Amino acid sequence: MIAESLGTNLLREVRVEGLDELLRSLRSKHEPQKPRIYTSEPAIGELLNIFAGARDRLSHHQHQTPVLELVGSSPCSGKTQLLYYLIARLLLPSTHEELRIGGKNTAVILFDLSNSFSLLRLRDIILGSIRAHNPPSLANKDTLNTIIHTSLTHLHIFRPQSSSSFLSTLQSLQNYILNIHAHISANRPVGAIALHSIDAFLHQDRLDDADAATLHSPTTNSPAAAAAAANLQPYQRFRDLVSHLRTLQLTFSTPIIATSSALASLSYQRLSDGHSVPLLPSHLPAVWRNYVSVRLICQRETIRKFQHGVSVQEVAGREAALRREAVEKGRFVAMVDWSESEGWREDVRGRVGAMRGDGEGIGFRVLGEGVFVG
């Protein structure tokens, strides 16, 4: 009897954990100070490292990998082009024969929720990225085609047609990635899970939920009650979404990159140090906003307006030429959104402020032949 009681007490002290948890704890123990390089682009990589390990403000869950949201302040803001660029750099190898490419040589999981992701455009950006790092004499056509084909075979695209299908696919994604017979990327780490147009189903879901709530109980449900029920459902879906993504983050130690569109207008707030920072409030549920580590507001570089008192001849000549040159350069900028900065640690605020510089953010060019950061 005493032995049985002793055995029971000992079993209660035994901690059960999975192999992934054990390996993760061993890695963090032996490499506690080693920063991870999430992307080969220095400015964005530094920004992601600042927010890596940031604490979830809602559940106090510890992120080990960052969650990046690219949000467009207006149509044609460049956010999708920047996503193409980040995916291209993750897929490309570091080197190929004599070519120096500087890619991450990883696999990427992409959820194209708006069914608008263009593989042809991604191919152009991959090609432009290779050419930007190498002289034309080294990058012959056959070599380029081999690199592009190999890189694209490690991009796994899913196109769910509804939020329920999206969540179901996410739930089964771990089994797909770990199944070495399902794809050819078993020898590559997962560089990122990309969610293109994370808000694609939000508005339709709200309409469907409102209709369902009204039809379910047409005699007792008022329009206000139906609207309240419709607003609750997206929160629950995003809560499930965040739960699935956290599991994938912990299993594969991979960052999340999402894109969304803004409904609010871009504004600026002056800090105590005299600098102005951009604010673009999100329309997505709070559970998602608290999950995201950092939002980058993407917009076209401001083109100055015509000066007052300029004649028609001057507009047709010098002024118009300057504006046309600015447009042809395809200059865009990605700025850190400070809307949720009250949840940042003091050291994070300081490091982001130090990166702010002159307030212009991370510049990038969107041209026909590719996307170029810096």
What does this entry look like structurally?
The protein is of the alpha/beta class. It is 45% helix and 17% strand. The chain is built from 12 helices and 13 strands. It is globular. The model has no long low-confidence stretch (mean pLDDT 82).
Give the tags.
single chain; 374 residues; 12 helices; alpha/beta
Summarize the structure.
This protein is α/β, with parallel strands linked by helices.
How many strand units? 13
Number of helices: 12
Q: Give the neighbour order of strands across the main sheet.
A: 5-4-6-7-1-10-11-12-13
> What pattern of helices and strands is seen along the backbone?
HHHEHEEEHHEHEHHEEEHEHEHEE
How many strands, what sense, and barrel or not for the largest sheet? Answer: 9 strands, mixed
Question: Ranges with pLDDT <50 over ≥5 residues?
Answer: none
Identify the overall geometry.
Answer: globular
- The amount of beta strand, in percent, is 15-25%
